[in-house]
Amino acid sequence: MFRDEVKTGSSDPVFLCLRFISLALLFLVSGCSVTKSQPPTHLLSGVHPGGAQRIAFSPSGRLLASGGLHGEVIIWSVGSGMEQRRLPAHRSRVQGLAWQDELHLLSVDRTGELRRYHVGTSDVVSRFFPGPVRAMKISTDRRYVLLGQANRVLRVNTGSLGVEAQGEIGGRIISVAVDAGGGQVAVSTADGRVLVGDRDLSHWRELERPSSDANDLHFSADGSRLLAGGWFRLWVWDVTSGVLEPRPTAHLGQVISVDINPDKQTWLTLGRQTDSSLYLIDAQSNRILRRLQAHNLCGWQARFSPDGRYAASAGEEGSIHLYDMKAPYRPVTVWGEESE
């Protein structure tokens, strides 16, 4: 069913024309539109002026780190939604956050300064300057992070911040991913490629190309599938064969962020343009299980906690939405003109 959709992708003129017409109509009626969605358990409103860019749960899931447009890094209690600590700010916007353990947080800004914080003391324990960074993901064992730069990938030890391996990609990197076993990595590039490589970043093979950018790559728990967001769709690859399965979504623009629940049964998808909606999706049927409250402006990132108990999203209006996923699903009516 999904294979036929590849023939008319987001690069097709007719497809684009129809989409833009539908979006224009959407904007005309948005002032009186009605949606039903679940409010967050904790709404951290306007905590990052200019935009909440990145979020990351600690290994225990009790803490959430957030990074903003102006470089600020804040630690939150997931249970209470209360601010716990502010760490020394970066000089530019935060591009990645990752917890080494419950006390040490790694963050990187757009200029390429990678920091290792001691969260208990707020000290910057160590720094590394690899150059401008576009994406960062941490391995499941938290021993290294993968940094995506303009045209290369670095594997950096989380303890020493030393470079263990590097690979040339030959294109501007959008996203990076590491599988659960640490033996496979993946990158997507602005020229439309999606590549899977080995841990040493020395051997790469290209998967079937999607018709739009592949945002926020994630491997499935067994490493057999690769998930990403695209324009109006999700991209799902069989890693072994490289075959792409495009999946339709209810998003009315770019799907900027996705995540896979540790229970392997559900996914999070976050829109960037037009709706900024957050959906909980059944991984097998592609059915929307929960519609979670949209951000007022463009979405940036969505994440599950390590145990799947909580979910969080960050948006360009500077807010963070925290959800207890064990709470009953009780959507409420939201009018198009309402704000947080």
From TrEMBL:
<dbReference type="Pfam" id="PF00400">
    <property type="entry name" value="WD40"/>
</dbReference>
<dbReference type="InterPro" id="IPR036322">
    <property type="entry name" value="WD40_repeat_dom_sf"/>
</dbReference>
<dbReference type="InterPro" id="IPR001680">
    <property type="entry name" value="WD40_rpt"/>
</dbReference>
<keyword id="KW-0853">WD repeat</keyword>
<dbReference type="InterPro" id="IPR015943">
    <property type="entry name" value="WD40/YVTN_repeat-like_dom_sf"/>
</dbReference>
<feature type="repeat" description="WD">
    <location>
        <begin position="45"/>
        <end position="86"/>
    </location>
</feature>
<protein>
    <submittedName>
        <fullName>WD domain G-beta repeat uncharacterized protein</fullName>
    </submittedName>
</protein>
